[in-house]
């Protein structure tokens, strides 16, 4: 749609990079607001800032590495393109898994309950992800299959990563809207009293369902298929099962 936001001489600001940066900033601001206004102080301010900084690093690195592994031959030929994350190419599940692993180690070390931390992070993740998918839409990555529906979109910009000149499912906007609905639900749900870990479990089950469904409409390269399902769909199944397990245990 509009992959390049603006240019200053030789300096280019990509729309994708702008929205990803905005997504991180908004999600972090919202997270800090939730934790600082909470009556229960689960983490010190210094530890919180350190945690957020490391999560940003691990999230981006994990998301990029996951993307690289889906098209390894291309990156072997052009290794320096691995670092061009501002042009697109971050896989959410890669970042999510990397962050979960880091958060588990960090929580163990600092003696913080991981699920309690997850309850605060859940709505922030949904909000940030919704904004990030708008960046995907403008850059043309994560595009959908051909569609004859009235809301299908046609990418014509020469810098777009999507297939150009054909009506496609706006899968980026599907996911942005679904994540926004998930955020709104979690925002109000988190204000109510609920058992430890349930907000986080609702997030991972909700996102797993929406991602599993949207994957059927994706038209970009989905990597190796297993029994007709993409890697993201298989991860979604495991996430859904984990979320249901947490919810059932808390009943």
Can you put this structure into words, describing what you see?
This protein is mainly alpha-helical and 251 residues long. It has helices at residues 15-37, 45-70, 72-77, 92-110, 114-139, 171-189, 198-215, 231-250; strands at residues 4-8, 11-14, 153-154, 167-168. It is 63% helix and 5% strand. The radius of gyration is 19 Å and the shape is globular. It starts with a strand and ends with a helix. Strands 1-2 form a two-stranded antiparallel ribbon. The protein has a two-stranded antiparallel sheet with strand order 3-4. It has one domain (4-250). It contains 8 helices and 4 strands. The longest helix is centred in the first third of the chain and has 26 residues, at 45-70. α5 runs antiparallel to α6 (171-189) and α7 (198-215) runs antiparallel to α8 (231-250). Its EC number is 2.5.1.145.
Keyphrases for this structure?
two-stranded antiparallel ribbon; 4 strands; single chain; 5% strand; mainly alpha; 63% helix; 251 residues
């Amino acid at each position: 749609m509009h992959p390049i936001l603006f240019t200053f001489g030789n300096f280019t600001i990509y729309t994708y990079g702008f929205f990803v940066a905005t997504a991180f900033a908004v999600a972090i601001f919202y997270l800090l607001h939730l934790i600082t206004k909470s009556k229960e102080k689960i983490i010190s301010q210094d530890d919180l800032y350190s945690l957020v900084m490391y999560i940003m690093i691990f999230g981006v690195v994990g998301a990029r590495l996951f993307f690289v592994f889906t098209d390894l031959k291309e990156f072997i030929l052009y290794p320096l393109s691995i670092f061009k994350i501002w042009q697109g190419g971050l896989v959410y599940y890669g970042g999510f898994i990397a962050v979960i692993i880091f958060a588990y180690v960090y929580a163990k070390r600092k003696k913080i309950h991981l699920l309690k931390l997850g309850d605060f992070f859940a709505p922030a993740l949904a909000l940030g992800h919704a904004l990030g998918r708008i960046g995907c839409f403008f850059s043309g990555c994560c595009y959908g299959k051909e569609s004859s529906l009235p809301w299908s979109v046609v990418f014509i910009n020469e810098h777009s990563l999507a297939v150009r000149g054909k009506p496609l499912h706006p899968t980026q906007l599907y996911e942005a809207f679904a994540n926004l609905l998930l955020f709104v639900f979690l925002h109000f749900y988190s204000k109510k009293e609920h058992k430890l870990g349930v907000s986080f479990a609702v997030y991972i089950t909700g996102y797993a369902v929406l991602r599993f469904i949207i994957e059927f409409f994706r038209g970009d390269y989905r990597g190796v298929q297993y029994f007709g399902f993409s890697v993201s769909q298989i991860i979604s199944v495991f996430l859904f099962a984990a979320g249901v397990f947490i919810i059932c245990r808390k009943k």
